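Hi support team,

I submitted a single chain yesterday and got back a structure, but I'm not sure I'm reading the token output correctly. Could someone confirm the output below corresponds to the sequence I sent? I've pasted both exactly as they appear in my results page.

Thanks,
R.
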Amino acid sequence: MVGVRVERFQRMVDALAEVQRAEAHEYTAFSVRGKRFGYYWPRTRTAGLKQLLSEQQALVAERPEVFEEQFTAGGFGWVVVHLDGIDADELSELVYEAWRLTAPEELIAAQPAPPG
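Hi R., thanks for writing in. Yes, this is the structure output for that exact sequence:
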């Protein structure tokens, strides 16, 4: 089934070690040890996730109806994910990768694969 409910997306994020949430007026930001790895915008039902530049480009080129380029920074490409267009397994992998690219090595060693 394609499409991930917001509650399931939030459970994916919450299953990762030491995730902090910061609620803003129009979005929620997700960090690990003070470093951002993701965002959620309820108005558009989209998530912004940190990825490698090559992954960002591949996702956007492959399925532009699901993924959009958000921005690039520090050698990373942030991608907008439309939750209505992605399946849970793929989203779980992207959420984990965003966290893994940001988390310190000791947290990654303790959680070397996506939860679940």
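A quick pointer for reading it: The chain has one domain: 6-82+90-110. Let us know if anything else looks off.

Best,
Support desk
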